[in-house]
Every structure is written in structure tokens, then in C-alpha cells.
Amino acid sequence: MRIISVIIFLVLALPAWAVDFSTTIKGLDGQPIMLKEGTPLTLGEVAAGALLKDEPTLSGKDKVSRYVLAQKVYNAKDITLTLDEAKLIKEQIGKNWGPIIVAPAWSLIPDEVK
């Protein structure tokens, strides 16, 4: 019974949001932003690219954590993120992309984590 109580507490205490990282990023004209290969840029590619940007002051452990999160979101459909994961992704997108990518990318991640 104690284990069940702990599990219920953790589920309720750690909010999570489902995000579709396969969604395409659209430009000012409402059309998908296209990569050089002719494929549309996705939220997963934006998030993974931002997470994998090197920051020399990060510890090896933090770099591995970001790599694992980048793998999780790269081609993912509806995946569940913790509040901390969503905040980190938004923070890194904001630091590593321009406004034409940041604004539509942030709009695809729930408002509760802005």
C-alpha cells in the first residue's frame, strides 16, 4: 500500500505535458520552413539542435542528459515531458535560434511551461 501511495504522489506532484515534436515549424507566411534537403523543419529538429549546442561550462553529466533528451524528442510524436524538460527545451531554443524559429516553436509547447 505504501508503494502505491508513493506512486500516486509522484504522478500528481510531477506535472507533465504531451507535445508532438513531429509538428512542422511555420514561417511568417504560414508555410512550413523548409530545410536545404526540401523537407520541412520540425519542432523535434529545432529542440534537438538547441539541446545539442555545446556549452563548455556544462558538466559531462549535463551534456549526457541533454543528449538523451534530444534523442527522446528528435522524431517523437506525442511524448510526455516533465516541467523541467519542457523548461530546458524552451530555454535552449530561445538561446540558440532566431525569432523566426523561437516564436512558432514556443507556441507548440504548452503555455504552462513558458
What does this entry look like structurally?
With 114 residues, this protein is mostly helical. It has one domain. Helices cover 51% and strands 9% of the residues. The protein has 5 helices and 2 strands; from the N terminus they run H-E-H-H-E-H-H. The protein has a two-stranded antiparallel ribbon with strand order 1-2. Helix 2 (43-51) packs antiparallel against helix 3 and helix 2 (43-51) crosses helix 4 (83-96). The longest helix is centred in the middle third of the chain and has 14 residues, at 60-73. The chain is globular. The termini are far apart.
**Class of secondary structure makeup:** mainly alpha
Spatial ordering of strands, largest sheet: 1-2
Largest sheet: 2 strands, antiparallel
Strand count: 2
What string, H for helix and E for strand, traces the elements in order? HEHHEHH
Structural shape: globular
Terminal CA distance reads: 37 Å
Rounded to an integer in angstroms, the radius of gyration calculated over CA atoms is: 16 Å
Q: How many H/I helices?
A: 5
Total domains: 1
What percentage of residues falls in helices of 4 or more residues?
Answer: 40-55%
- The overall pLDDT, averaged over residues, is 86
Strand residue content: 5-15%
Low-confidence stretches: 9-14
Summarize the SSE layout with pairings.
Elements: H1 2-13, E1 16-20, H2 43-51, H3 60-73, E2 78-82, H4 83-96, H5 99-107
Antiparallel strand pairs: 1-2
